[in-house]
Amino acid sequence: MIKENTFKIIFFTIAIFFLAGFTVPAKAANISDVFFNVDANFDVGESSQVQAVLIKTAANLYFYVQKDWWEAQVPAKQSEIINNLDVLSSEFDKKIYPTLTSVFGSEWNPGVDGDSKTIILFHAMKEGVGGYFRSNDEYIKLQMPNSNEKEMLYLPISQIDNISKLKVFLAHEFVHLITFNQKDRLRGVQEDVWLNESRAEYAATILGYNGLYEGSNLQARLKNFLERPSDSLVEWKENKYDYGVINVFMHYLVDHYGINMLSDSLQSPLTSIASINAVLAKNGYQEDFSQIFTNWAIALMVNDCKVGPKYCYLSSNLANFKINPTLNFLPLSGSSSLSVTNVTKNWAGNWQKIIGGKGDLTLEFSGVKGVHFQVPYVVVDKENVSTVHFLALDENQKGKIFIKDFDKNNNALIIIPLLEDKTSGFSNSEFTYPYTFKVSISGQVQEDEAALIESLLAQIASLKQQIAALQSGEPKNPLAVSCSSITGNLYIGMTGSQKVTCLQEFLKLQGGAVYPEGLVTGNFGALTRLAVVRFQEKYASDILAPLGLSWGTGFVGSSTRQKINQLLQVM
Q: Where is the signal peptide (predicted)?
């Protein structure tokens, strides 16, 4: 029994999308004026049929155009369009067809209709849609009632004048036609969408269309990737971010392991990650897909062959391409800690950069028992030289990094938590898994000094208050708070601040368990920070839990202020 294809392959103009859809049967018509089934999800009027007219026959292609649109064009415009299609058909005959079939193999030829030519149908599509491929057309109507029973590709009429884009679109779509023949028809298997799309996207590079980087499809894809770099490689949601990540990964894969990774895996009876692993083994490589993915994630952070031969891109277009990691800042004085909880999916990159702090650094990582994280990390020294290490995790997915005198020798620590468990059966909605890391910095000497200074300043301030109270004859209420609410973030290092004074007055009223020193100075020092930490952990369910935190940070942000202001209202 022939399996019906239900997956969608979409190609957008900037985030190029393709789709295998379901429509209604085509009406009978002569060769020059016919009705074709189209995908209603992409047709501008959401129609399931389009009446089209044949305007050009080439060596390997028929060009059809939506009839009502074509007849609305003046003769001069029609001639211009036909001239453009002459250029496109010549490019297909001389470059696209011979190059891509030599790399990936042939499409079904002659196909379901017994004709060696492929039909290109231009019709009006919704804004942003750049074309699509319907695998249903490769079956006879007895099997797929909505089939056009032809090898067909669909391109947007809005781009009929843009030859540079049409070359990229046509090449991409033609790879899908080849893939159907090589996988579905000849080997009876259906390729995972992410890998199907990866081959089609890489076609532009094979053909040299990305050679000039400015304005290229690759440039647009890198921009998409940088907007959401943690998008999963294998989860296919049919958006521009999916196309971004597959481009960035596939250029790395082919850079280091050759085009055979894509071509030989297409000829394999296996699919998805298993097909790539089989090709790696066949070609004598020691790495598997998981190791390559890990090296790629590191390369995106350092992109320097001097750090390691696999920690860089070889393509000139990507020689300087790097990720912007999520930044985590530790205070520059005293002891401090930071706890971050995040979620990830299989085959998604995560880059967390830690800077700041003085003293010894400890990082504790905790994943979910039952899954297997890989956590490479990069230490950047004072000379901005990177070294790569790997965090050892126990059976509970826990591990620890310790770096002596972190601030004296280093500028940054970057951890790259990766989940690489699932290898097949990917969908458009993969599970998310949490991980947590806690960074602690110990600077006991600095903290003791800061506490002493804060204590002396507090004594001076207290004496000033007592003198002022005696002079006025109106002793100040020691339990009063000088403000009704706290606005704005408060943090260690602030001095001479009335807001900090109000915070300290409030913390003092919380008792010795929160603020045993009870100093009110207007200076946010180490003792005040510790008092804030105790307060946050006392009301953890209100302050920390909503943020996914387990330990206090000492930073007075929105959630901490909200709790303080709530309590101030009832005082």
A: 1-28
Task: Please choose, from the candidates 145, 144, 135, 132, the residue with its C-alpha nearest in 3D space to the C-alpha of residue 107.
Answer: 135
Residue 105 has pLDDT above 70, yes or no: yes
Fold (CATH) for 326-442: Jelly Rolls (2.60.120)
Give the least confident one: 46-50, 246-250, 401-405.
46-50
pTM, entire model: 0.74
Angstrom distance (rounded) from CA 108 to CA 116 = 8
Q: Determine phi and psi for 300, rounding to 5 degrees.
A: -65, -25
| Fold observed for domain 475-568 | Muramoyl-pentapeptide Carboxypeptidase; domain 1 (1.10.101)
Residue 204, token pair as written in the block: 């532009």
Identify whether the C-beta of residue 103 lies closer than 8 Å to the C-beta of residue 206.
yes
10 Å CB burial of residue 404 (0-12, 13-18, 19+) is exposed
pLDDT of residue 470: 59
With a pLDDT cut of 90, the percent of the chain lying above it is 72
C-alpha span between 222 and 215 (Å, rounded): 12
Domain boundaries, the chain: 1-190, 326-442, 475-568
CA dihedral 264, 269, 271, 275 (to 10 degrees): -40
pLDDT digits (tens, 9 = 90+) for 473-492: 554 445 578 888 998 898 88
Q: What size, in residues, is the chain? A: 571
